[in-house]
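Supplementary Data S3. Sequence and structure tokens for construct A.
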Amino acid sequence: MKVLIIGSGGREHAIAWKLAQSDRIDRVFVAPGNGGTAGEAKCVNLPVSDEAALAAWARQEGIDLTVVGPEAPLAAGVVDRFRAAGLTIVGPDKNAARLEASKGFAKSFMEKYGVRAARSTTFTDHGAAVAYGAKHFARDNPPPLVIKADGLAAGKGVIIALSQREAEDALKAFMRESTLGEAGQTVVLEDYLAGREVSILAAVSSAPGKAGGAILPFVSARDHKRRFEGGQGPNTGGMGAIAPVPDFSPAAQEDFRRAILEPTLQGMEQEGMDYRGFIFFGLMVREDQCFLLEYNVRLGDPETQAVLPLLESDLGELCLSMLDGSLGSFSLRWKPGAVYAPVAVAGGYPGSYRKGDPITIDREVLAKTGARLFIAGASTGDAGDLYTAGGRVLALSAWGSDGDEAHARAYQAIEAVHFNGMAFRRDIGRE
């Protein structure tokens, strides 16, 4: 088979690496790809981003399967476009992608189908939202207030306001100053939930008029969003991830299945959603009870870089099972142990940062750790050398028989990499 992956980040590098391991797959094209995908076995970067041009190229090239990495093309309807052209593609259609593209739609869906989540109210009027925030903070010892932009905001659309002033500033920025464009014109104000965050990636097969819908969860993962050690500093796209999560107990896993996974599938089927792709459940867990924070309609980043190295099943076969309705009988196999994946970022990230700095890698040291290097924001020069091209530059994913060994190997591996201004958290999996 010939496979096309749409995207250019660390998640897409991990997907390409895993798909290339399939005996059924001869070639993996990544559009537009990055400096990491360019060097993977069986992989070729395709410098095309326009969806119409990609669909035309896929038909001409005879692409057997397309996998979509990021959320923006899914929200824009790339799945609908490819299927209309007679192409086989993994992902939710535009209607189903609203579970991530619109926080308001997602919260309405959760409430309608009994998916356990924090209480929330959606606002399109700035004054009404400010009044709600003022009433919230007028209470005795009020908890924080979570403010979410309704649309896609590249990880910048959630503010946890600790005071009325912080809430007003966030609402002004989103709704009046349009700092997030259309994404912040509608906001969701949500109760704050304390606990431990857990990410569950999963495969979904739910198509209108077809029986046997299923959601097959992967091993648990945890992202570390804050820039600095101890969970301090601004939110980022992710400073590292671990899988599985040691404190996600069997009781919590069963609660997730009953209170979130099953009603989500029921809702998809009753709404007639065409959802044949991946999903991300962002959870808050406390006392073995799970609350859904958000849906993402794709694999998480950097969670994918921690989860896929544990997957022993054929990822290509899994993708096909989502499309042909056999997902419910697919057997997922996982490698025992754990993966820790700290992320190296450019100096200044998540603020302004430099680009174009050369990346040096001690391949001998890296090989001794057994770690995989997944590129997120780096390009290749004429001689094949790597140069920084983004804020999150790369992740080092290391396996160990337990968390301690995985942690040790991951941080040995990250010492084998250097670029000007390189920074990373040293407490991934230890926060």
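Construct B, processed identically:
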Amino acid sequence: MKMGLFYVNECHDENYDRAYSEMLEQIQYGEELGFESVWLAEHHFSAYGSMPSPQVAAAAISQITEKMDIGIGISILNFDNPVRVAEDYAMVDVLSKGRLKFGAGRGYQPMEAKGLGISLEKTRERYWEYVDIIQGLWSNDTFSYNGEFYSFDNLKLTPKPVQKRIPFYHACISPESFDLMVEKNAQEFMVTPTLMVMDDVLEYTRRTRERLLQKGIDPKIHMNLQMNIADNTDQAIKNVENEMKVYFNKVLELIPGAKGTQAPKTYERFAEVAKEFDGPLNVGALNQSGVALLDGPKGAVDRLEVVEESGIDSMSCWFRMGDMEHRKVMRAMKRFADEVMPYFKSPAKKVTI
């Protein structure tokens, strides 16, 4: 299982120069430590995330790294023109010399959609149309499309991507979205224990992979997970307790159904989660359910082994949560790289922990 980094890049003091500079320094350090990828998330209009255009960050990262894959986890397709998305990320693929891994989703935060003048109705239909457009533009010299939301004739991207086929990971966080992976013959998808506990995520992942294998597709599956490694579980929880509370308190203000609001159709599961988290946040319980991995090195290896056995072949480690202090992030990265990652880099799995 390959290991990478993840950034939504929260910034609660509005010092974005600091947030971006720290992120770039951490990514450079991550490449030195042996992390094989970095994944970037698109968000708008709040301290929850400071990357409204992850393609801009990806372009910058392409110039300060040499080997890391540059993953997008995710681009919110419904918030943009799909032709522009295809153009922007073709540029990123060229600038990175073919290191792009593209991930996409339909978005879920009502405030973001409202701010961009986008409806959260028919987001699934719009999403899959945009997927067809982007992949068609990337893989054909010229491409025409006649859909419900977009139509055009004989468009040619300049530049074309370096890769013959850019990996295209679909965000998959609800039972319905796992079914869609099978229906749409997904070659790549990404999961995270956000709307389900870890055991349920892994069970759905295993079932979905088996169903795709029956159709002759061996999917690449990526997981994103908040984590911290310390001497023991209690210390790991203590290391990130304040930051995780900052993160979850913020996200629970933003999801559909927050504070009793009406969730749009097809976003009902978010409203259920908002109700489940009503009350003081228990970080220890989040760790027990697998929503986060807060453990000692041996416990982390054991838990990640179970993840790997479910068919997940790459992981992005979310160390910087709740606008965590820079030195704490760097320390967390180093400990994981020294005491957990070597096990998964060893083909024989004989590294002693």
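DSSP finds 13 helices and twelve strands in the chain. The longest helix spans residues 233-254.
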